[in-house]
Amino acid sequence: MPADPQPQPSRQATLADWLEGARPHTWANAFSPVIAGSGAAAWLGGFQLGRALLAGVVAWALIIGVNFANDYSDGIRGTDDARSGPQRLTGSGLVPPRRVKAAAFTCFTVAAAAGIWLSLLSSWWFIVVGAACIAGAWFYTGGKHPYGYRGLGEVAVFIFFGLVAVLGTQFAQAGRIDWVGALCAVIIGGLSAAVNLANNLRDIPTDSQTGKITLAVRLGDSGTRRLFVLLASLPALASLALCFATWWAVLGLAAVPLLVVGARPVARGAQGRALIPVLGATGRAILVWSVLTAVALAFAGA
């Protein structure tokens, strides 16, 4: 790992700077799987509010932690020196790298504490799953061989914020999983991967120059856009499929307009900062689909 650079900040970082560094537009990726998983648990007649809240703390702390970890790791590698996205704490020199790293591991500690508590209420092996999640969060851009620089970022997002988060939430509450939870996990994972993909689409030019080989760099501009549109279309199909469980699932179709808003700039060839709104629109679509689907499953719950 290179030695931490010590750029001289032009001003002191404010609370607003730290909030921007935590990247609130990604938080829907943390809350949505817990909401969808809780709805899937309610479908099985096993919803438990306390465990749902603990799962929410784990997911929220993890996503803020991974955002700070990426800020730190990308910053010390120099891959944030010429980016078109929101300001980074490390790359801008506003905050010393060691403080950003400490913030990341503080968040990971909070996630671990909530995860251990949840495991004591449900299953001991959640501790192992939680450890894997924290390792995945750090080594996305951290360490000597970050997998995010090998085009595996979207795969990890799909697994951790889709399959693990949704099905883990369902199992922690209901004690089992089913096809409804699995379908929700695939959709949430796919949309979360789409958010990550849009972020990397924006940064293709700078990532290519700095050796950060993301999936977007591997697929190229046109291939990345086609994959994003495909992933953004999944919730509509899933809502129709979930109608085999309950007709209430058609509520999820109300998220489609938000997905269209998010996908339009991508489909029309927007570049650079013009792609930033895609992240927020897609994040809101994930949240809306999760809430409406969870409500539908709860109404029809066993």
UniProtKB/TrEMBL annotation:
Pathway recorded for this protein: Quinol/quinone metabolism; menaquinone biosynthesis; menaquinol from 1,4-dihydroxy-2-naphthoate: step 1/2
Keyword tags: Cell membrane, Membrane, Menaquinone biosynthesis, Transferase, Transmembrane, Transmembrane helix
EC annotation from Swiss-Prot or TrEMBL: 2.5.1.74
Domain of life: Bacteria
Localization terms from the record: Cell membrane; Membrane
Membrane topology: Multi-pass membrane protein
Principal location listed in the UniProt entry: membrane
Gene3D superfamilies found in the cross-reference section: UbiA prenyltransferase (1.10.357.140)
Family that this chain belongs to: Belongs to the MenA family. Type 1 subfamily.
Protein name as it appears in the record: 1,4-dihydroxy-2-naphthoate octaprenyltransferase
Gene encoding the protein: menA
